[in-house]
Fold:
Amino acid sequence: MDWIDIDKQWLLALNGSDSVFLDSLVKTLTTAVTWIPLYAALLYVVIKNCDNARRVLLIVGCALLCVFLAGSIDDMMVKPLVARWRPTRDPEIGILVDIVDNYRGGRFGFFSAHASNTFSLAVFFTLLIRSRLLSVALVLWSLVNCWTRLYLGVHFPGDILVGLLWGGLVGTGVWLLYQKMENRVGTPMNYISTQYTRTGFQHEHIDVVLTVMAFTLVYAIVRACLSLYA
Structure:
């Protein structure tokens, strides 16, 4: 048995359920629009903790670069070149995959842009802000997104693992680029205070991001509960 067969077996073990609640929860969590408040909260933290507009623009540009390198290049180049079927469209196991509301994704799935996008942002903001709680929350957010793709049957575990690896490399690389350019937009932010992280971000502003993430999860759970009565 080769790794491709193992990949397919793991996918079938992790894919889907008979739960209407979980189906609705996953559909909400995997949708990009659901996480717009999180992106807005991260932007809020950046704006509140940067001493000039150039630094804000640099960080926003780096975040966008993460998304471009991690996800856009994957969708535009890697998926068409590798041409590995998504599980939902795989000629061998497609009929066995549990599909939610007829959602099958595009034709090809290697590698997962959800995994690479979210993990690149998680790694970049972890290295940028240096808050342990926020770091854990962002990594869990990325992993939850990865789980939704397996649940929906639109990616194999191998697609997810490669996406996480690439996302981690992109996030780290973009942060190193930010480090090199930081001196050009102002004095590097380094603080020694219980009110700040060591890179100069106030804990009370970071709490806003954590609160937004918590409310987003509650929103997804409430929607899933309401689906039981629809």
In short: The chain has a mean pLDDT of 93. The first helix runs from residue 3 to 14.
